[in-house]
Amino acid sequence: MYTLPVRATTSSIVASLATPAPSSSSGSGRPRLRLIRNAPVFAAPATVCKRDGGQLRSQTREIERERKGGHPPAGGHKRGGERGQRRGGEEEEDEQLPLPSEKKGGASEGEAVHRYPHLVTPSEPEALQPPPPPSKASSKGMDPTVERLKSGFQKFKTEVYDKKPELFEPLKSGQSPRYMVFACSDSRVCPSVTLGLQPGEAFTVRNIASMVPPYDKIKYAGTGSAIEYAVCALKVQVIVVIGHSCCGGIRALLSLKDGAPDNFTFVEDWVRIGSPAKNKVKKEHASVPFDDQCSILEKEAVNVSLQNLKSYPFVKEGLAGGTLKLVGAHSHFVKGQFVTWEPPQDAIERLTSGFQQFKVNVYDKKPELFGPLKSGQAPKYMVFACSDSRVCPSVTLGLQPGEAFTVRNIAAMVPGYDKTKYTGIGSAIEYAVCALKVEVLVVIGHSCCGGIRALLSLQDGAAYTFHFVEDWVKIGFIAKMKVKKEHASVPFDDQCSILEKEAVNVSLENLKTYPFVKEGLANGTLKLIGAHYDFVSGEFLTWKK
Ligand SMILES: [Zn+2]
Ligand SMILES: [Zn+2]
């Protein structure tokens, strides 16, 4: 039986949580396989897994390591344009930025903030029914939204996945990303697209306004678990926080009025993480127009997130020991610019060269795509995907800029409605459904998911090894119980494969506990799709709820 050690050493954490190495499956070299199946596809039994196969990042690793101890203050180094717009905050390692204490705020300006008086106080979340298994009947529907996902995957499979075994084969046995990236859920700013980050290269969190909240085990298990997993288990070397132009979350933050009632259930509470930045901008740039204040705030909020990162003990330790660096960045999709600060120089070169390639080869060449996106986003999809560096849906499904508002967290979990614990994901769902009016919510599980392994490995009554991870993955507890009961005799790795899909079902059920989702489902403006990406066999499966 698989157990998480009570006091895990670093290596035992890695052994427990790193993704498994399937022993016999192979997705490449089978170009004509049925790509899409509407039945669960189980990964081959896995052997004990080791992270860090080494090969997968040879390119970026060639760049020599950062100089020791270099952790310049924010704003100390910038590249690209907009040099005059911000200055770095003075930072001290120990300082923690408290969450702002004000409870009330309201938004009456800023086009990204709308009023939704019909959003009533939510009723008690429904008791979760054990969700049905993936339906085998979903192929009959010819639903264009599903077809879009499938054809996107098919294109990826034949044009990328099958053609680059040298990239994807090593990734089947584990991930060892160099970067952890925080990016906004905004459909226009996927860092895999804008920075050309390759599968395996960046463990990615996407949330409203790419906010990193301060350490808080109760309120922010979602973000906390991702940071912890990235730093402690995956040993990422660089954490990058990327703000962006025309950010709706930043507009919402700047629009908050003291004492006014909140328009949303979650959004205001989430963006208030950036209140210290807002206060700074209001004070230092009081005379500047609202839109310009937003532009400045987009970068200052990144500084708050960088500061908040230091409130996590494992981050602080990594910074002190020189194994971890922080980078602030801002992507300006109206001007087509990308700026960074807080250098380790080599990481910045990787990011800026990735952006330059995107700029020259994609952005500048497709004004018909990017032109309209400069004035707003109207994504059809909201996608939940794991932070795992191998599963970016922009890559695997070919989702285009503007097409999918995207949340990425550990194991693509969607918790049930909870204003106290889950403002991060609640705000994203609320914003996507109520403000952006997305039509489809897609939850995508994946093969060899470390978060799912952690969930299945949890022992009743055992002490937690992590600060956050166990608490976060327990969102899928019902699915785990189901798998343990119904598939008691199958090996651990096969149970993991089943659980990857059952956990998606739990997330789909949990989505229904959000009143705005329930409403959209009831009146037919919204639908839910479950999906699973198996990067070992090279298959993508969908089902409807
Ligand atoms: Zn944004
Ligand atoms: Zn995962």
Provide a descriptive summary of the structure in words.
A hairpin with a 4-residue loop joins strand 6 and strand 7. The N terminus is likely disordered. It is built from 20 helices and twelve strands. The strands form three sheets. A five-stranded mixed beta sheet has the order 4-3-5-6-7, with helices on both faces. The chain has a five-stranded mixed beta sheet with strand order 9-8-10-11-12, sandwiched between helices. A two-stranded antiparallel ribbon has the order 1-2. The chain is globular. Helix content is 37%, strand content 13%. By secondary structure, it is an alpha/beta fold. It binds zinc ion (2 copies). One zinc ion binds next to helix 16.
Q: Quick gist of this model?
A:
The chain is of the alpha/beta class and 545 residues long. The protein has helices at residues 10-17, 58-62, 144-161, 165-172, 191-194, 221-233, 248-255, 267-271, 275-284, 290-309, 313-321, 345-363, 367-373, 393-396, 423-435, 450-457, 469-473, 477-486, 492-511, 515-522; strands at residues 21-22, 46-47, 179-184, 202-207, 238-244, 325-332, 337-341, 381-386, 404-409, 440-446, 527-534, 539-544.
Distinct compounds present: zinc ion
Spatially, the strands of the biggest sheet line up as 4-3-5-6-7
Strand content: 5-15%
CATH superfamily descriptor = Carbonic anhydrase
Main sheet overview? 5 strands, mixed
Text of the CATH class: Alpha Beta
Number of helices: 20
CATH architecture label: 3-Layer(aba) Sandwich
Q: Number of domains in the coordinates?
A: 1
Shape: globular
Family: Belongs to the beta-class carbonic anhydrase family.
Binding site for Zn(2+): 184, 186, 244, 247
Function: Reversible hydration of carbon dioxide.
Region (Disordered): 1-144
